[in-house]
Amino acid sequence: MGRALQIAGLAVGLVGLILQFCLTIPAALAAGRGVAGSLVFYFSFFTILTNIAAVFVHASLLSPGGYAWFPAFAGRRMRACVAVSITLVSIVYATVLAQLWQPQGLFLVADVLLHYVAPILFVLWWLGAGADGSTRWSDIPIWMIYPVAYLVYALARAPLAGEVPYPFLDVAKNGVGGVALSAAGVAGLFLVLSVVAVLADHAVSRFRKP
User: Fold this and answer.
1) Which domain holds residue 163?
2) Which of 12, 13, 23, 137 could form a disulfide with 55 if both were Cys (CB 3.0 to 4.6 A apart)?
3) From residue 143, how far is each of 58, 119, 176, 180 by CA, in Å?
């Protein structure tokens, strides 16, 4: 079952990422961005980066040479970090972002694959086969580097690019205080999910031992 979930997760992740790429790049070019700017725009979304990480985790464990090609993603604690991150993707999208637009057609397909299907498959796989009790409370500060670094990048890029990947990071519209509050809320949610992940990892490990 664990391998089946990984194969499904890898397939869904790849299809979603490729489809989103094929939709985003032409739209970005049509909006006046250059090729480089369109690529940067695509890779500036936390959803895209996290789904890429999930694909790398699946690939590292499914392919014979996976440990050689994706050593950073084959580690057990990295799996937990990705599980937390992709859960954050799904929760923030479902509770905040989904209400802001109504995708249609292939945009809707990519939207569902990357925000719902891929996260569910990854978390189910992690709980069923990827979690092994190896996470530690000291891992959480290391995991936090990812969302904090992303927030710093997104906010630093905004004045240069004249755009933000997510509306709640728009300083011009929400003010510094509003953006700081949103960023703190996202970081706080990531922290809570990290605590839950460590607890779940240890619980699943104890459950399997008998």
Assistant:
1) 2-208
2) 13
3) 19, 17, 25, 20
